[in-house]
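Exercise 7b. Backbone tokens:
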């Protein structure tokens, strides 16, 4: 069964087509990620599929029974309702079905023999539909979805008029999920969600039986949810199997093949044209004419479908002291405390990411570090020779009324226009764009201009607040590569878990009442969360606001000999890899027939599992010991 068939869809804005022959199909249960650079037409395509815009030509056909929902950006609801009432209104169709089934049941009880057969069939159809759509315990379903998307129970009775813009967007997403259409069209559904709510949404969409077509800049989200990827570029769609990471790898391999094939054909065409040119009027003119005819009939290979990413890059950093930054017992609050007694130390060359829910003080902490805010208590000390460069997520460091080429010039630095234009080109701003005013730039262009300004500052300690906002997937990849190649120190806030994974070697994790330091990236943190060791794995850097400072801890007797955390982690990885190998070997038929071998493997498996358990305990103790 095909839920949706899209055939040769074309859409123009001005003279150039945004969509130039888009063709694909969607089947039940498929989870499809729609990716492409900014401006490729992803949102336009979703609006055409949802009937919000018309295509210039082509066909969009749905199966007659397909129910489709589009996550709209503007709320449409009845005023005077509460949050919970509005969410429950998404189930009106199911409640109507339930009422109809109840009415038919009453009619069936009072019906005579002549009517009972027909009513019974109708009742069975209604019950089948109610069962298929899980139309039972609806109150519980509403509670589960609202809580999953970050609403606490105290907010359920809040009037709609009192919801913030982000809460309104989450409510619209909740209504779409509750309706459970056969095909969900989602445009950036994780916007306005914190990481915990995003994780819940990932699980919900991955487990649902409905088909999903989703546009998202969240690569981690796409990896968790999707099993197919459509790349929209230059007006057409290429189809890939698997999630975003699978697409990224397949794309690289496909580009290699396309490049070789294209270059080989171009070489053949060039040789043939040269032969024709040299022999058009000579003794080999007949051969030249024959080759000319063959050349006219040849099917031209399209150029490689390469999505260009700006190279970016940051200049070499001047060496600083071994400790680039030291925060000592920082505290800051406004109407409520954000953090207190927060201490940590960042070594030269480290790349620290800050992770936590919205409103927990991450940006405020960065502003305290760079001197834009004064902490209520404690102090921040910079290492010898440290020169900070700050990327503000509001991009306020660029003057709106200046041309871009002038706005990125650092004060007091000799930096002529050709060099500034060359720098902007590295960040994807070329031609007339560099002479436009900053105010006229798109969000992505302005972000790249701010990164170019950061590169021009010659900072050896870069502090970045949500640097991937407004960047497309290819620009994010370029920024990640540039930060990993940068030999200075980096401290950043990001909600982008893929970015955290690729860039961070330490995490400062914000939890209620405290901060924790994780020696590793986001996957390291999640590994210990899954193992139930996140509390022990993390080294506490700041405790609750009411923590006492005059208590002397009892002297600790350590169970294990001292080992570096990295060494323990390496051994854990090696032993867990061996456990996987043993389990795979035990599943082989030829091994199962060999009793002696089975016993040997089972004994080794038990030994390895016991060793891993002990290693985790050792890791936990070593983590505490490092902070003692």
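Sequence design result:
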């Amino acid at each position: 069964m095909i839920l949706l068939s899209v055939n040769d869809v074309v859409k123009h804005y001005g003279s150039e087509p945004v969509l130039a022959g888009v063709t694909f199909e969607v089947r039940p249960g498929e989870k499809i990620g729609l990716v492409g650079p900014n401006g490729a037409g992803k949102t336009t395509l979703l609006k055409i599929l949802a009937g919000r815009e018309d295509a210039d030509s082509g066909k969009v056909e749905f199966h007659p029974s397909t129910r489709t929902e589009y996550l709209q950006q503007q709320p449409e609801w009845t005023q005077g309702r509460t949050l919970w009432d509005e969410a429950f209104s998404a189930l009106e169709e199911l409640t109507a079905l339930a009422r109809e089934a109840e009415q038919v049941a009453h009619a069936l009880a009072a019906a005579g023999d002549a009517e009972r057969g027909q009513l019974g069939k109708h009742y069975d159809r209604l019950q089948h539909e109610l069962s298929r759509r899980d139309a039972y315990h609806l109150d519980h379903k509403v509670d589960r979805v609202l809580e999953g998307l970050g609403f606490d129970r105290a907010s359920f009775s809040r009037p709609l008029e009192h919801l913030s813009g982000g809460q309104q967007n989450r409510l619209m997403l909740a209504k779409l999920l509750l309706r459970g259409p056969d095909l969900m069209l989602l445009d950036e559904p994780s916007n306005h969600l914190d990481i915990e709510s995003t994780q819940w949404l990932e699980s919900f969409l991955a487990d649902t039986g409905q088909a999903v077509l989703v546009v998202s800049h969240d690569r981690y989200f796409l990896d968790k949810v999707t099993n197919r990827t459509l790349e929209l570029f230059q007006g057409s769609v290429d189809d890939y199997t698997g999630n975003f990471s699978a697409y990224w790898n397949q794309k690289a391999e496909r580009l290699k093949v396309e490049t070789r094939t294209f270059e080989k054909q171009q070489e053949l065409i060039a040789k043939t044209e040269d032969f024709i040119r040299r022999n058009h009027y000579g003794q080999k003119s007949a051969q030249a004419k024959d080759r000319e005819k063959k050349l006219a009939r040849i099917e031209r290979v399209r150029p490689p479908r390469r999505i260009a990413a700006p190279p970016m890059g940051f200049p070499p950093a001047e060496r600083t002291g071994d400790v680039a930054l030291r925060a000592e017992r920082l505290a800051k609050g406004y109407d409520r405390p954000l953090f207190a007694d927060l201490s940590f130390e960042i070594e030269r060359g480290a790349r620290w990411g800050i992770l936590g829910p919205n409103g927990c003080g991450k940006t405020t902490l960065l502003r305290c570090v760079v001197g834009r805010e004064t902490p209520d208590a404690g102090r921040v000390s910079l290492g010898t020779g440290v020169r900070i460069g700050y990327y503000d997520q509001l991009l306020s460091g660029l003057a709106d009324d200046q041309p871009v080429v002038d706005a990125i010039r650092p004060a007091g630095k000799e930096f002529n226009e050709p060099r500034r234009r060359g720098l902007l080109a590295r960040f994807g701003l070329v031609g007339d764009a560099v002479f436009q005013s900053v105010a006229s730039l798109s969000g992505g262009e302005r972000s790249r201009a701010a990164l170019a300004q950061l590169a021009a500052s010659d900072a050896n300690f870069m502090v970045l607040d949500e640097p991937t906002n407004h960047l497309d997937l290819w620009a994010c990849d370029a920024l990640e590569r540039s930060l990993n190649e940068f030999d200075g120190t980096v401290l950043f806030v990001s909600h982008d878990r893929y970015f955290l994974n690729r860039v961070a070697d330490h995490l400062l994790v914000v939890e209620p009442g405290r901060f924790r330091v994780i020696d590793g990236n986001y996957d390291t943190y999640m590994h210990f969360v899954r193992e139930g060791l996140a509390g022990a794995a993390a080294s506490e850097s700041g405790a609750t606001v009411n923590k006492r400072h005059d208590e002397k801890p009892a002297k600790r007797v350590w169970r294990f000999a001292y080992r570096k955390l990295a060494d323990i982690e390496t051994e854990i990885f090696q032993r867990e890899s061996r456990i996987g190998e043993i389990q795979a070997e035990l599943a082989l038929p030829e091994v199962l027939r060999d009793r002696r071998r089975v016993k040997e493997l089972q004994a080794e498996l038990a030994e390895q599992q016991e060793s891993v358990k002990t290693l985790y305990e050792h890791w936990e103790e070593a983590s505490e010991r490092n902070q003692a």
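Instructor comment: Residues 1-67+181-242 form a domain with the Rossmann fold fold (CATH 3.40.50.300). The two ends are 62 Å apart (CA to CA).
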